[in-house]
Amino acid sequence: MNSDKSNFLHPAAQSALTRYRSYYQLPTDCVQEQTFLNVWGTDVFVQCYCPDTPCGTVLLLHGYFDHAGALAPLISFLTEHKYQVYTLDFPGHGLSEGERYSIPDFSYYEESVKQTINWMMERELKPFHIIGHSTGAGIAAKYALTYKDPMLKRVELVAPLLRSSHWHLSRVAHALTSSMINQVPRKFRPNSGDTDYLKRQQQDPLQDKFIPLEWLQALFNWEKEVRGLQTASARVSIIQGVKDRTVDWKHNINFYKNLFPNSHVFLIDEGQHQLLNEKASIRQMVYELIIQRLNNEGT
Length: 299
Prior knowledge:
Layout: H1 11-24, E1 31-39, E2 42-50, E3 56-61, H2 72-80, E4 83-88, H3 107-123, E5 128-133, H4 135-147, E6 152-158, H5 167-177, E7 183-185, H6 195-203, E8 210-212, H7 213-226, E9 236-241, H8 249-259, E10 264-268, H9 280-295
Parallel strand pairs: 3-4, 3-5, 5-6, 6-9, 9-10
Antiparallel strand pairs: 1-2, 2-4, 7-8
Helix pairs in contact: 3-4
């Protein structure tokens, strides 16, 4: 599991990984593996958490500004339910290389997912599920629509991104300011009912306080591209909080329902954008819903 960038067998690397997993409370009671995949010249950090006798495989995709460590509660929940979990940090996020939170084109995210799936299949040719949150959900949807992969069993889209909230205002503001500035301050608006999570989010050393305008332009271009895609028959669940103020969720749900005619939509009362890191009662509801959908493959 070595890479050109880092020798994970070196004691210093092992110590750093131990501190990383301890800080984010990632599971330690299962087999843990990691590597870097070179994606168009950028080293992307990929991990695998495998319990004894896994019943299935999940690829977990995080949202913008997040990383695998931010999804530690769900990773632990899935491994406790005997699912093997693969996850990656998108370019510019977490422990991956790349300009922080900026991307010239969303195809870099898509290629990261494609190469991670290739790595998964090289290791073990088995069907898999994808769970994506926010940007990760949008990338998961694009993968299902583009490749129609026969090994992909189910896709769980959690608060999926297509358009962000205040979409048209954002486009106007970007057009007016992008020639003068290249980033804007990130505002940590409450996006979860878990106050402890919100504190951790602001103190997270792998997050930042600025939004590059290049990323917004890439989002605008990607949204236009996705609107041109054809429908797919993939088994898809859409899980959405009705108090989400980060994405334009009503528009996005209608759009994804049309692209995936067989999809099922689950609205979460009181749920905000960070459904995977919500207060305990909502988080447990979402996790149980996800595991039910994963276990019930026929619908």
